[in-house]
Amino acid sequence: MFADLGVPTPLVIIVIAVVVAGIVARRVPVLRVAINLVSWVLLAGLLFVVLQQREQFDPYIQRAMQILNIQDQSVVGDTVRIRMAPDGHFWARVTIDGVTRRMLVDSGATLTALSTETARAAGLRPSAPVFPVVLNTANGMIRAQTGRVQSLRIGTIRADNVPVVVSAAFGETDVLGMNFLSRLKSWRVEGSTLILEPHHPQTPAERA
Predict the structure, then answer these.
(1) SS3 (DSSP) at 160
(2) Domains of the chain, with CATH numbers?
(3) Whole-prediction pTM
């Protein structure tokens, strides 16, 4: 059940361990206070993880997180701001031809890359190019098919006719590469926040 919510199993184990320890330490006041504090911190962390996972599917949660300023991605003026994830990377919520996906922003990747599942969901029909596209990945050299995304949206940003590469070797990971970032007016990292600024920001009506 917790796995379906996207909650890390180690975190669930820790919470259960703290609860059990709290029961054992009921007769030791000092230890009980310490365990209670740790329990609340862990439970808050658990709730935050669940909210982050469910935010993209529930507009009410999106609004609540926006009010509390705990969104991992937000629109500020004309810019899109993405907070660094716990894994040290920036993950953007992107709509690809009407399909929403969480994509890794990678300035070290020349091309935007889609998994076969994402390409299929977006109705993309990749084809083998005349000259083979060979990519150097962490898993070695792989061949990829090519295609074009009609519309790629992130907050105030819209990019049309974006070339992409598709391969089963990408697993479940989708990547925003430099061929997307280079279309922006600017992009930069300030502290732990990635800031994307488009040339022609979309209005709220256009984003709806």
Answers:
(1) strand
(2) 9-63 (no CATH), 72-207 (2.40.70.10)
(3) 0.66
